[in-house]
Amino acid sequence: MSLNSFGHVFRFTTWGESHGPALGAVVDGCPPGLPISEAVIQPFLDARRPGQSRFTTQRQEPDQVKILSGVFEGQDGIQRTTGTPISLMIENVDQRSKDYGDVAKAYRPGHADYAYDAKYGFRDYRGGGRSSARETAARVAAGGVARLVIPEVKITAWVSEIGGDRIDMDHFDEAEIGRNPFFCPDSWAAARWEKLVDDARKSGSSLGAVVECVAEGVPAGWGAPLYAKLDAELAHAMMGINAVKGVEIGDGFEAARNTGEGNADPMRPGNDGPSFLANHAGGIAGGISTGQPVVVRVAFKPTSSILTPMPTITREGEATELFTKGRHDPCVGIRGVPVVEAMMALVLADQKLLHRAQTGR
Fold this sequence. Notes:
The protein is of the alpha+beta class. The protein has a single domain (5-359), classed as Chorismate synthase, AroC fold (4-Layer Sandwich). Helices cover 24% and strands 23% of the residues. The chain is built from 7 helices and 18 strands. The protein has helices at 38-48, 113-120, 136-149, 187-202, 230-239, 260-263, 336-359, and strands spanning 5-6, 11-16, 22-28, 65-67, 71-73, 79-81, 86-91, 154-162, 165-166, 209-216, 244-249, 267-270, 273-276, 284-285, 288-289, 294-300, 310-313, 319-322. The strands form 6 sheets. A 5-stranded antiparallel β-sheet has the order 1-2-3-7-4, with helices on one face. Strands 9-8-10-16-11 form a 5-stranded antiparallel β-sheet. A two-stranded antiparallel ribbon has the order 5-6. The protein is globular, with a radius of gyration of 21 Å. The two termini are 37 Å apart.
């Protein structure tokens, strides 16, 4: 497995498995001199951490990040990046590999079990190994470093839909995102989702979700056509998150149902460049940021680990049925919010440095 790295100038590599001793990331290309500490990165991991409510997996992982390299104390006593690779480690402390004994013998439908075995002729069945959503903790840690590179950008994500039930944008309240376990900006929807997710959890089933992410403060000019377009890099980054099955930029598929007039983003003169009258393009045109908010929506499939017996086959090709034991998210998209924010930060940090390298600005 050789493709575990992402980025061009600001580049990160993740390592580790769901049930290994630890996992982490190595961040390379970070500019020197940025103030950094474990305390700066930890809040993002805390937001993703499992076991914080009955609506997520009850695996108890503190997800404490350790910085192993790439930093040094300056004359002011504050740790700063040195420009060398930053190694981040998160220990696994609450693995229960015994829950996966049956999975060693048969493939879980909807999971990557068969695909990994078909490719490598070998797989880590304990929690899915590298295919587990546990890997995303490393991305969130790396994203904490990326945010230091783009202090001018504000990134906000939220769950906009669970199980087909959408929020009402007329009830949107950004402050509400941190007040409920669903990262939901609509208190009415959050109240409905409690029963929705509870019912799925109690029945041993699961639900899908849509996460929306907006980056404000991205200046015009980021993105490198033709093959490092900002929207293409964002799609690549988001589709690389485990359990993601769809990505939209701006209006996404709604644009295909619109007209040229309805889909255009009209402009008028403004004090600092154009003033846009709409943002159907999601802040990106021709693969380059326009200065408008960058908007991405990400679709998470329902968690494949469910208690309903499903038809499958053994490794020897024999018919059988399997249900998944263990502790699993009834809606994995809920904890996808900080992961989507992290991938947005990682792409934007990379594109900022790529833009600077090409234009000197």
